[in-house]
Request: fold
Amino acid sequence: MRPQDIKIDDPVFLADGSDPIGAVRRVMLNNRPEIVIYVENAGDFVVPLAAVKDVHFGKVVLDGGALDAKLRQAIGHSHDAEDAEFNEHSEDAGPHTHRRPSTP
Reply:
């Protein structure tokens, strides 16, 4: 991994091929080797470079086991707003949905 390859706005992932959990906001390589990432629905978090597993093709992949509990919890809720929006729209989704028949 080459920390100098990390750029602001790079998407952040927990695994290759997974959905992004946020984006890089700041890169600090000098005195404190860490990055600041924005996690959707949770805000900014400081991540030590030791928790960065890989950097390639403009993506930053984190080591989930090296993250603190607060960040792991935020990541677990990073797509809650999207899920709520999906559920809201699925009410009107049409005949492929399974709805309980209305009673007279």
